[in-house]
Amino acid sequence: MEKAIIARNITKKYKLYSNDKERIFDLIFPKSYGEDFYALADVSFQAEKSESVGFVGMNGSGKSTLANIIAGIVPETSGSVEVYGQASLIAVAAGLNGDLTGRDNIELKLLMLGFSKKEIVELEPEIIDFSELGKFIDQPVKSYSSGMRSRLGFSISVNVNPDILIIDEALSVGDKAFAEKSLDKMKEFKSEGKTMIFVSHSLGQMKRFCDKILWLEYGMIRKYGTVEEVLPQYEEFLNEFKKLSGKEKEAYKEEAMVKQREMLKNPVL
Ligand SMILES: Nc1ncnc2c1ncn2[C@@H]1O[C@H](COP(=O)(O)OP(=O)(O)OP(=O)(O)O)[C@@H](O)[C@H]1O
């Protein structure tokens, strides 16, 4: 099988500060202030060409961070990611400039991706048509609703014909008609043998669409396998987790943090 994405020992550390003073002091005396927070801890996985991989996990588990690292828009702290082909990320509002109009954003993104003026002139109407934004395409993006931003982001990304498509929650803010149209487009991509990473809380869409599921928990991989194997386990986990009391949830998190620290000390090579 041909590999499309190889992520090796990806760790992403953020600094958390309790106030602005700490933030400023840390700039002057690096490493003296703030608390280390690991959004991802030693995450390794591979996706084959033409596979659709869904990222699932509770809020804050690291799904978007991992998607953004694969897309090259967030740097990893350590580890490496190899992406074979042109990745194109659709995250609501990611890479869109609020002060520019929708049309200018399309042109800017295409220029950044290396398209020629001629190719941009050809592609632009297709993107605008897919977005169904009508006259709003000439309004600044900061005046768009989140659904409108998502339409623009999705339309640009699918129409640049990427080898790897990364879709981060883009369908959750759009209306049902647009979501259906987008899912059809994603199916088209799948049938063309393209690789996809799909971040969503909609397990229904995951079932319809993905081959594999990467389940993240507190920045660590809890499970990676086929949809049939992982999704029922994740659903069962969610059902059980919601029954826990606040204290039990805290204890669960504490246990996960211990695991995380161990993992960071002894990375899986
Ligand atoms: N720039 C940042 N600075 C500090 N912490 C950050 C930053 N970006 C993300 N984080 C933290 O990293 C963790 C993972 O965030 P991420 O957005 O990847 O989670 P997620 O699984 O996509 O969550 P959700 O389901 O809520 O979208 C969160 O705790 C978040 O607060």
Automatic annotation (TrEMBL):
InterPro entries: AAA+_ATPase, ABC_transporter-like_ATP-bd, ABC_transporter-like_CS, ABC_transpr_TagH-like, Bact_Polysacc_Export_ATP-bd, P-loop_NTPase. It comes from the Bacteria. Gene3D superfamilies: P-loop containing nucleotide triphosphate hydrolases. Pfam families: ABC_tran. The keyword Cell division does not apply. Residues 22-243 form the ABC transporter domain. Keywords: ATP-binding, Nucleotide-binding, Translocase, Transport. The keyword ATP-binding applies. GO terms for molecular function: ATP binding. Belongs to the ABC transporter superfamily. This is Teichoic acids export ABC transporter ATP-binding subunit TagH.
